[in-house]
Amino acid sequence: MTRPPLPDQRSDAEPPSLPGFRTWRGVYLFVFGWFVLVVVLLTAFTRIFS
Amino acid sequence: MNVADWVVLLGTIVGIAAYGFWRTRHIRSLNTYLKGSPSTGWGTIGLSVMATQASAITFLSIPGQGFESGIGFVQNYFGLPLALIIVCAVFLPMYRRLGVYTAYEFLGRRFDRKTRLLGAGLFLLQRGLAAGVTIYAPAIILSTVLGWRIDVIIVFSGLLVIIYTVTGGSEAVSLTQKWQMAVIFGGMVTALVVLLAKLPEGLGFSGAAHIAGALGKLQAVDFSFDASRRYTLWTGLLGGLFLSLSYFGTDQSQVQRYIGGASLREGRLGLMFNALLKIPMQFLILLLGALLFVFYQFERPPVFFNQSEWQRHARGAGGAEFLTLEERHAGAVAETQKAIRAWLRARASEDVAVESAARAAMIEANRRTDAVRSEARAALLTADPRAKTKDSDYVFITFILAELPHGAIGLLIAVMFAAALSSKAAELNALGTTTTIDFWRHFRPLAAADEARNVRVAKRFTALWGVVAVAFALFAGFAENLIEAINILGSIFYGVVLGIFLVAFFVRRVGGSAVFFAAVAAQALVIAMFFSLNIGYLWYNLIGCAACIGFSLLLQAVLGPQAPTDVGRRA
Q1: The pTM is what?
Q2: Which domain holds residue B286?
């Protein structure tokens, strides 16, 4: 018999369990902040070397 | 290539494939075959997602793009981290909650059967066509520069990937991708280190970067609003966001990489790993190309990097003209080199007027070299109107073969094969899964009860798609710019598919019939625009998506309100 794939019963509120992050919102904000920093650094790189 | 190169190449590529085959040969569970091991952690998921996206074209064409046009292509990835955040927050929890095997199963639950089949059908059409390109693209380049038979490369790599993907399904794909990424990282770092070591003495990274920047290769971010420019901050953010959201959120070859795993947390962290690392990684690959450009200002480059194509014509009737072009190119390169050295001295003198004049002379000398290269391309076209005049895909491989020590050459060729196999395996896995779950099992609901039969059918469909991809690669001719051909193809279909999913997740009042006919109309509109307008192709992601959502809302307004489905309520 094929067992249908089990729906993931765990809540979306499952914590990220990462040091310094209590919620996923915090992780997303960190990733977004990193992205902004990367774009700023790339812009600076463009200004410095062009 | 010598014996050491062959040992490294075959040892890594065949070794990883054999490892994947051996470790997964006893898989009998449909869940593991289609979703991978239920204990997969975020590291494997993250590397698997990265390996699926990074095809051989990434490592052949992107350094060439950096060499030819600079690093502006990096903006294409600006939408990616934002898209991955949305996938983590909205798409992934819903896929896991419903326990679906494919993204299109979700459409069936949210809308209806025809919308599910439309989504799955568009995926099979787009990914099925791209599958041939994925296998053909590196094969044509490697066969040209290494002198190997292209059909042997296609059949060898095709068979290798078919064997372990059919045997172990999603589990084998993830396992092998982890090691293939290790080979890729190792190889690319080796190439970068060798390149930096081979720059002229005293120049260093900073000097090389200043030369590349002065010659227009290091403009990473372009704030221009000019719609005809292919890569700007805005096309990257908007078009790139929609392309990435569509690719990571709705393309089964990616969805399959993260819907399995030990928990929702592992999937999310795997995607966030990519959100953090993808732009820096692409930047480094493009920077490698820009540094190659500087390297070839000091080492005499060929007038045309696809030497096989060039020599074919140079030995023909118009050989004298080709010889003259080579001599003129050598003279132009020598002049540019002199101008660069003069500019470096002027920079060191810190006299602004002298530096400015030297910079202008260097740019002019470089422009003359480019003009000779353009003449060379024109000469090729005159000699043979069907000649392939784009040689940027050959820049990095030319450097590898001419400048890397033996052993490292084998490693870098292994990088190309590892990248080709990793993306190919994920594609075949997804094509086989979608055909089995969304078509075969959908039309044979009674067969769903027989797990062993489901696994057998999934294996057969995976093998069948593998054979189709190999046949397509063997017999089809492809567009010159391989990486763009894939992206353009993706952009034509991805926007509409994303539109269907966004309606599914965010517009609860729209039902199956409205979204289905809206998607068909939006797809027709995008195809008509593609053939009649000249705009950056990334915009088609946005247009297709917006048209699908807009038409859905209009049609639903005409059809009247519909009762929300159970999934619709939860979405």
Answers
A1: 0.88
A2: 3-296+400-570
